[in-house]
Structure formats: C-alpha cells, structure tokens
Amino acid sequence: MNRIALSLSAVAVAAVLGFGAPSARAADPATEIATAAAHAGMAAASADLTMVHMHLHHVINCLAGPGGAGYDAAQANPCKDQGMGAIPDSMADKRGALESAAEMAKQGLAQDDPAMAKQEAAAVQAALKKTM
Length: 132
Prior knowledge:
By secondary structure, the chain is mainly alpha-helical. It has one domain. 68% of the residues lie in helices and 0% in strands. It has six helices and no strands. The protein starts with a helix and ends with a helix. The model is unreliable at 1-24 (pLDDT under 50).
C-alpha cells in the first residue's frame, strides 16, 4: 500500500510541477510563431537548397504541430516543448493567416530552384511576423 501511495504522490507532484505529457503543458502560440518565423528566416538565408528545405520543414512542424496537416515526424520540431503547434494552439482569428503561411512553406518545399525556395521562405517569415 505504501508503494502505491508514494507512486500516486509522485504523479501528483509531477503534474503540479508541469512534468508529463506535452499536452499537459501550457500552449505558447506566440513563441511557436516566433520560432517558426526564425526558421523561415534561416531558410531564406541558407546557402543551399537542402538547408532551405530543412528549415521550411521546421516551420511547418511548428505551425501544424504533431498530427497537423503537413507535419513530418521524420523532421525536427523545434517547437516540441512550446505546445501542440501554433495553428491548433492559436485563437481562431489567427489560424487563417497561420494556415496560409504553412501553405507558403509547403510551396517553398516544392521548389527545386534555391532562389525561388528562399523567396518563398522570406515571404513566410514576413507573413508570420504580421501575426505576432
């Protein structure tokens, strides 16, 4: 019985301190948007197409969140500790603009021309800054 009580107490303490599943943490859409914008800027400044695409994947993962449209679990998610994605975590009035930015990032991913992909990335960054 004592072990069970100790285990339950440990779970309760962990919950109070904010440990546990990511969904138990408070969402921070402003930070998610800022992180996505930073990665869009990194994409726009990248030296080669591989890096442009990598950072655009990061943008999409930050915006969509796990399970969201376009989320790629094979790519890094720099927003993993900030919430469940800027789109699902944001108020309804911001979601349209964020979804548009995610679509622009997807267009950048579809580009084989580094200059065009960088141009899309810069447009994504500008769009995200408008939502801040």
